[in-house]
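[step 3/7] fold_predict: job queued, chain A
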Amino acid sequence: MSILTAFGFRQFAGFLNQTSYPGPHNLTVSHLEPFAARLDIELIKTPSPLAADRTYAPGNETTYIHFILNQRTLPLGLNFPECDANRLDGWCELDIFLEVQKGSTELAQYDYACNGDYEVVPWGMITDGAPLRNG
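[step 4/7] structure written:
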């Protein structure tokens, strides 16, 4: 879970109902914890751009990244708008994914989150783990 959070995956960030068990949802922690989870990150190089329907488009060699959690694809397009949300295979061009990741350190606000002087806010106001800044 820490690795997915560090990469900025958002598909599991939906709010859960405080008073009742939710209906269908994207994450069941008991399927991952407490024993183990297997996260595979694949890099796939194709001779030209490859569409989700597995047809090649004209162009140069392209490298994609693909995340598989417990033998299931994590669709990168659901987590990062820059990746194609219509790709059911979950692939994202590696260059696009790396560009998205460039802002991760700043977004995390690590020093402020760990050492900052901030007030606790009500449930539901924080959706990315970083504390809200005053002002």
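[step 5/7] annotate
The chain has two domains: 2-102, 104-135.
The chain is about 20% helix and 15% strand.
exit 0
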